[in-house]
Every structure is written in C-alpha cells, then in structure tokens.
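Worked example 3 (structure in, sequence out).
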C-alpha cells in the first residue's frame, strides 16, 4: 500500500485524479461542445470555428421549421414523462408496501418484473408494437409508448422502494398504533412523511428515464414522435446549429427538473428534522 510522507500525497492520487478528470471530460465534453456551438452566429455551421456569437439559433428554434416539430414533440415527451412518473411513483409505493410481507408468487413476480431490465429495449418495443398490431389497436405515444416506458421505470422504482423499506424502522409504526392511530393514519402521518425523499427520488427516476427514452419508443410511438425520436430524425435532415440549440434547451430543462427535485428532497428532510 502506498504511504504518504508528511503532507505529500501518494503518486497514485495524481494518477487517479487524472483518470477521473478524463472521465468527467468524456462525460460532459460532448454536452459542453454542443452548448458552445448552439451560440453560433447566423452564418455559423455545425463545427468549429465559431462564426460569431448570438442567440439566433435559439430564436430560430421557435419559428416554423421545414423539418421537425420541436414544440409538439417536446410537449408529448413532457406529458408522457409526467404520466410515467406518476404511475411509477404510485405503483412502486404500492409494490413496496405489498412486499413488506411475503405472499404466494412474490419471488416469481419479482423476477418477472426485473426481466424487463435484462431484455433488450428494442425487443420490448418490437413486442409491444406487434401485440398492438395483432389486437388491431393503433399505437400511440400515450398508450403503447406509455406501457413500454413503464417496463423500464417500474423495476427501478421497485428496487428503490425495496431499499427504502429494508431500512425503515417499524418501531415508528408500532409507536403510532400504541398511541391509538389507525392503519391509514399510521401510513399517512408516519410512513409517508418519512419516505417522502425516497418517493421524490423514484419520481425523478421515472421522469428522466421516460423523457429521454429512445429505444423503447421507436416501434410504439405511432404517427407522432417524442422528442428523442424527433432529434434522431433531425440528425439526418437538419444541417444547422438549431439542432444544437434544441439539445442545449433540453439539457437545461433536465437539469432544472433535477434541481427542483433535489430542493424538494432537501426541504422534506429539513421538515423531518424539525419534527
């Protein structure tokens, strides 16, 4: 094991720091590059060097485009993400309560739920699309794509709730019942406030995973694209930095949502400490 001499750090520290810096560059470098290029001047292109600095392409984003439906695809992705988020949170919570006690078939149901994480996403999308076709139902982003996204978000939500309830101290519930609280009062006044930060985490998972899901939406979105599909289609047709402007705005939106959830989780923890 490497040892430090006085305040000197071991050589391995600098190697690992450099490796971590390279990882961060690999992780955020492309996003940063797209963000910079989205501020190209009106005559700018898709690559460096910059030909002026302006907000021209952001303004152009909200005008009528020859190719692409930014507003419509963004609205569909947002509505789909919110719907998936709500369903993921509610069903993950109910599943977490259910799995606090063993029941017949619980193991089988658990492994079947996790199987959707192992099966390639494109196969799940293809299977749901074929099922809708055999049933004579038209696929839509709010029906078939909605179900496809739940096969992705629900297992994550379930695993989070397992971790939450495994660490939950049941003595809080016992104390509430000893004081005369009903089962519903115990859940509403004791359990839900204590696990609220984790529920916000499940909601964040559901929203972000659905918002940028591509493979599971590909075969089941119907006639109207979600934002990831619209972006993919634009990469073969649009040759202006307006594509980068859209990517920058969606990235900012994603970070705003994450920041909002983190703030809500922080407020929830502070309220628990005060009580």
């Amino acid at each position: 094991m490497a040892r430090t001499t006085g305040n000197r750090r071991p050589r391995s520290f600098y190697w690992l720091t450099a490796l971590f810096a390279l990882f961060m560059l690999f992780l955020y470098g492309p996003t940063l590059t797209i963000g910079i290029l989205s501020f190209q001047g009106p005559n700018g292109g898709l690559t460096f060097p910059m030909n002026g600095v302006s907000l021209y392409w952001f303004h152009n984003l909200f005008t009528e485009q020859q190719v692409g439906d930014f507003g419509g695809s963004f609205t569909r992705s947002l509505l789909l993400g919110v719907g998936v988020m709500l369903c993921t949170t509610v069903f993950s919570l109910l599943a977490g309560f259910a799995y606090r006690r063993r029941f017949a078939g619980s193991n089988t149901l658990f492994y079947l739920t996790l199987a959707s994480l192992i099966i390639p996403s494109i196969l799940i999308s293809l299977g749901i699309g074929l099922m809708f076709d055999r049933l004579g139902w038209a696929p839509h982003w709010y029906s078939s794509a909605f179900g496809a996204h739940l096969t992705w978000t629900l297992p994550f939500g379930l695993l989070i709730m397992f971790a939450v309830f495994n660490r939950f101290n049941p003595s809080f519930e016992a104390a509430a019942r000893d004081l005369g609280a009903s089962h519903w009062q115990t859940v509403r006044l004791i359990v839900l406030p204590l696990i609220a930060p984790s529920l916000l985490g499940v909601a964040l998972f559901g929203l972000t995973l659905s918002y940028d899901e591509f493979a599971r939406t590909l075969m089941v979105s119907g006639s109207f694209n979600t934002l990831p599909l619209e972006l993919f289609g634009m990469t073969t047709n649009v040759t202006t930095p307006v594509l980068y402007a859209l990517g920058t705005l969606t990235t900012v939106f994603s970070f705003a949502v994450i920041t909002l959830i983190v703030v809500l989780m922080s407020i929830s923890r502070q309220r628990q400490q005060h009580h």
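Notes: Residues 74 and 184 are 39 Å apart (CA to CA). The radius of gyration is 24 Å.
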